[in-house]
């Protein structure tokens, strides 16, 4: 990414989600007529989220010159399932979208293990240099983690209130992801690749 202010990247990543939350909270107890149809707060929030995600993804691409496979997949699934929710005026399509995303990611990671391919390392190795065993362990843990998130999403949207699901999506999922990354700090240290010091000595990269 080109040199930008530190707040730009998190703003692009979390901006659409915060907008979704704000619109939902503003209209969660109300309905609005659009094109002769009545829409509740959840659908209105979804309607705001989709173009916002397109905009932030385009800005990210403009600044960095590339998009990760995860970003592309997320944009496509948000458009498809978010669009279905708006078109059919049915929140269930958008609520099931995270489940599909997490199962898909878990399947990709599982396939990389079965095929003995380091697909996760190919994407993240520049930011997190590790040896092959480290990537194998992280790939397995992340595949299980995504499956857990998929199950959690299904349990929450099917059994709890709409507001609870929105809180879970907006705040719960980012917190769980942060906790997962932090919880693997020892793995990063134990399997970090050495880097050359000033005198040519190998120094573990923490």
From TrEMBL:
A matching Pfam family: IspA
Subcellular localization: Cell inner membrane
Keywords: Cell inner membrane, Cell membrane, Membrane, Transmembrane, Transmembrane helix
Topology of this chain in the membrane: Multi-pass membrane protein
InterPro entries membership: YciB
Transmembrane segments: 6-27, 39-61, 67-88, 100-119, 139-157, 164-183
Keyword presence, Protein biosynthesis: no
Keyword tRNA-binding on entry: no
Domain of life from the UniProt record: Bacteria
Role: Plays a role in cell envelope biogenesis, maintenance of cell envelope integrity and membrane homeostasis.
Matching PANTHER family: INNER MEMBRANE-SPANNING PROTEIN YCIB, INTRACELLULAR SEPTATION PROTEIN A-RELATED
Record-stated family: Belongs to the YciB family.
UniProt-recorded name of the protein: Inner membrane-spanning protein YciB
């Amino acid at each position: 990414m080109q040199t930008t202010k530190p707040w730009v990247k998190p703003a692009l990543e979390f901006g659409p989600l915060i907008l979704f939350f704000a619109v939902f909270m503003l209209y969660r107890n109300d309905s609005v007529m659009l094109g002769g149809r009545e829409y509740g707060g959840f659908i209105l929030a979804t309607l705001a989220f989709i173009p916002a995600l397109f905009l932030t993804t385009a800005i990210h691409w403009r600044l960095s010159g590339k998009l990760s496979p995860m970003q592309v997949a997320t944009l496509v699934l948000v458009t498809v399932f978010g669009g279905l929710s708006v078109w059919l005026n049915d929140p269930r399509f958008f609520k099931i979208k995270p489940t599909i995303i997490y199962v898909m990611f878990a399947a990709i990671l599982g396939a990389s293990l079965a095929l003995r391919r380091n697909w996760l390392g190919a994407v993240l190795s520049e930011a997190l240099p590790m040896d092959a065993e480290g990537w194998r362990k992280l790939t397995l843990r992340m595949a299980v983690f995504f499956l857990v998130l998929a199950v959690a999403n299904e349990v929450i949207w099917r059994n709890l209130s709409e507001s609870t699901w929105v809180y879970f999506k907006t705040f719960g999922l980012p917190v769980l992801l942060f906790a997962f990354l932090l919880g693997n700090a020892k793995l990063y240290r134990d399997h970090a690749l050495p880097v050359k010091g000033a005198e040519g000595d190998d120094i573990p990269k923490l």
